[in-house]
Write a structure and sequence with these properties.
single chain; alpha/beta; 44% helix; globular; binds uracil
Length: 279
């Protein structure tokens, strides 16, 4: 260790210690902390009476429950949580009401609207985006800004519009400054989205962008690996798994027009699937 000059005052010495990374004051004598910890553990163990033989033999009353899948709904979840509220919703109106009254996410405080959904909930196709942007927040409807205009054109290219498909988002509240929703925010909203999908019960899900694909498919892969392939979304509240296909988010396509060719292929896969379902 560097020697400290004798003419430094105590303040300088203290600053020197701090700048050297010292963040704890110690005594003059060395202290064997392992011995202290060992002694503390020994005396605590001596204070705890051994368990009664009967109690040792008794089986545990409940087995550990299996980890719940993302977005799992449960009426036994804590009251006020999205899982508890969503599990109690028998129709879309009840779900909208529950989401509008939800107090469990900071994002909602800053947002002007709960952007629930748009289009025809009776239709065979349900599109799921990431989260509302500024225009969506202002109007309370999903995909009504610039990326919404492109989405309308994409849907139009396979013969769909808002009267023949239904549109929602993973997160119904606009993240400030249009940032990406965090994994925690997505996890909080997933029970609402799961119930939304169960209540619409479409024939096909279109997942718009990486955030939507990762959340709905519960996969860590990026959109380049997930897009253009059929997956299945399942949940106990559905009569059968729903085929789901991810494609690029329209906002990404606005910035990256060269990706439109792949998006077009994805849309054709969706069209073919819908035709196959109909015949
Ligand atoms: N981007 C989304 O993911 N959703 C919207 O509603 C608007 C833009």
């Amino acid at each position: 260790m560097t020697a400290i000059s004798a003419d430094l005052n105590p303040y300088d010495i203290l600053r020197w210690y701090l700048e050297s990374g010292v963040d704890e004051t110690m005594g003059e004598e060395p202290l064997d902390r392992y011995a202290t910890t060992r002694r503390a553990l020994e005396s605590r163990a001596a204070a705890v009476p051994p368990p009664a033989p009967q109690a040792q033999r008794q089986p545990r009353p409940h087995a550990e429950p299996m980890a719940a899948p993302p977005g799992a709904l449960s009426a036994s979840a804590l009251p006020g949580t999205a899982a508890h509220l969503a599990a109690g919703c028998a129709d879309l109106q009840a779900l909208r009401h529950a989401m509008e009254g939800f107090e469990g996410l900071q994002l909602k405080q800053a947002a002007s609207s709960t952007v629930f959904g748009d289009g025809n909930p009776e239709s065979a196709v349900m599109c799921i985006g990431e989260a509302p942007g500024q225009e969506e927040d202002r109007r309370g409807l999903p995909f009504v800004g610039p990326s919404g205009k492109l989405l309308d054109r994409m849907l139009g290219s396979i013969g769909l519009d808002r009267s023949t498909c239904y549109i929602t988002n993973v997160v119904p509240w606009r993240p400030p400054a249009n940032r990406k929703p965090t994994p925690d925010e997505v996890a909080v909203c997933m029970p609402f989205l799961t119930r939304h999908i169960e209540l619409v019960d479409p024939q096909v899900l279109i997942l718009l962008g990486g955030a939507s694909a990762a959340a709905v498919l519960a996969k860590a892969d990026g959109i380049n690996r997930l897009r253009g392939r059929w997956f299945e979304f399942n949940s106990p509240g559905l009569p059968r798994p729903i085929p789901a296909l991810a494609t690029f988010h329209p906002a990404y396509l606005l910035r990256t027009p060269e990706a439109k060719r792949d998006a077009w292929r994805d849309l054709l896969m969706i069209r073919r699937r819908m035709d196959a379902v109909r015949h």
